[in-house]
Design brief:
By secondary structure, the protein is mainly β. Helix content is about 5%, strand content about 55%. It has one domain. The strands form two sheets. It has an eight-stranded antiparallel beta sheet with strand order 6-5-4-3-2-1-8-7. The longest helix has 6 residues.
């Protein structure tokens, strides 16, 4: 399937930003985000237009406030999300979706398949301070699940 691969998504709502990774294999979607959210469902590409319909369940852990404004809950829950994307998931262009009680703007881009484990196992970020004498800090992307 032409959609098969690993994708990174950056998203933002009124309550902050986020990042996640998902993988598509034979129309099946599995993913995770940096706060432990899990995604599962399907992606179907229209052969004529290239548009992609994603139909997913988004599993949310207790205590997590969603970026579009849903308050943290005491128990885990799942949200159903169905959206239609342009070809190639927009290839990194910002797309805005109405996901009550607010909206979410997301950018999705294909990434090397070596990051596939992050979609299935979760991931954390590691920030490395600058070396002595200055220079930029480094942001690492680590597979293996959110830090506890």
């Amino acid at each position: 399937m032409a959609l098969d691969g690993t994708y990174v998504f950056l998203y933002c709502g009124n309550h902050g930003p986020g990042v996640g990774v998902f993988n598509v294999k034979n129309g099946t979607v599995v993913g995770s985000d940096f706060v432990g959210g899990r995604y599962r469902g399907t992606a179907t590409e229209d052969a004529a237009s290239g548009k992609i319909t994603m139909d997913i369940a988004f599993d949310v852990a207790p205590g997590i406030t969603l970026v579009q404004g849903t308050s943290a809950q005491d128990a885990p829950y799942s949200r159903h999300i169905k959206e239609i994307f342009p070809a190639n998931f927009g290839d990194g262009i910002p797309l805005t979706f109405n996901i009550p009680p607010g909206s979410v703007t997301a950018m999705i881009k294909r990434m090397p398949d070596e990051f596939e484990p992050a979609a299935f196992q979760g991931f954390t970020f590691q920030i490395t301070p600058p070396a002595a004498g200055g220079g930029p800090s480094a942001l690492g992307f680590l597979s293996g699940g959110p830090a506890t």
